[in-house]
Design goal:
single chain, 227 residues, alpha+beta, 21% strand
Length: 227
């Protein structure tokens, strides 16, 4: 049953919550609750969340000619994923990400609810490779998201997921996290790279608690709320 979490109560960093639905198995009509890991619980009115699994990949024919990979990924998540994952009511509790000089109202009208993970944040919040490893859903595998050839000892297939590029124009580089949880510099090609959307959720939203992975042993020493 869904619970309403009040300000000052509820999940902490590393907690897993369920909010929205998206195909998990190889069936586009599947509606499995999406699990999100809390990256930050420090903002007083919201949580910063990242999808626990690699849930999709940008189709090869989706980017427009000349479109940067990160722009295509962000557009795909907001145009294609958000309407499928969240109901209209659930979208009301998503806090949009604003661009420079933009108001929150403008960002909401533009549907700017999902971001690619920022490498700086991921390095700070998820400090060890095992915290950054992400398994690939069957649905994402069916849509050609890269996955490890052999299943790990836990029976999971892990994949590579896309982060925001970093650096200035002279040292611009595309960053991914590979199937081992290590950071790599990628070429510009994005086909097959997994998506782990980042969202900001109002604490007043109704969601259910997910099950933490005991092997990950979340703690504030490993999963820093502030850095």
């Amino acid at each position: 049953m869904a619970v309403t979490v009040c300000i000052g109560n509820g999940p902490v960093c590393g907690s897993v919550i369920r909010y929205g639905n998206y195909p998990f198995i190889s069936d586009r009509f599947d509606f499995t609750p999406v699990e999100w890991t809390v990256l930050s619980a420090s903002p007083p009115h919201s949580f910063l969340l990242i999808s626990r699994y690699i849930i999709d990949t940008v189709p090869e024919d989706f980017p427009m000619p000349g479109e940067k990979p990160e722009d295509a990924a962000r557009r795909y998540m907001n145009e294609q994923l958000v309407p499928r994952i969240f109901s209209e009511k659930q979208c009301e509790f998503l806090i949009p990400f604003t661009d420079r000089g933009q108001t929150e109202e403008e960002a909401r009208r533009n549907g700017q609810f999902c971001l690619l993970p920022d490498p700086t944040y991921i390095r700070g919040y998820m400090r060890l490779p095992e915290l950054r490893r992400a398994s690939v859903t069957d649905y994402a595998q069916e849509r050609d998201a890269f996955t490890s050839w052999e299943a790990d000892e836990d029976g999971q297939h892990y994949g590579r997921w896309m982060l925001c590029p970093e650096g200035d124009l002279m040292s611009y580089k595309y960053v991914i996290t590979d199937e081992h949880g290590d950071f790599k510099v990628s070429k510009r090609e994005m086909y097959g790279l997994g998506l782990r959307p980042v969202i900001r959720l109002d604490r007043r939203a109704e969601f259910t608690s997910g099950k933490n992975d005991p092997k990950q042993k979340w703690s504030h020493r490993l999963f820093a709320d502030e850095f």
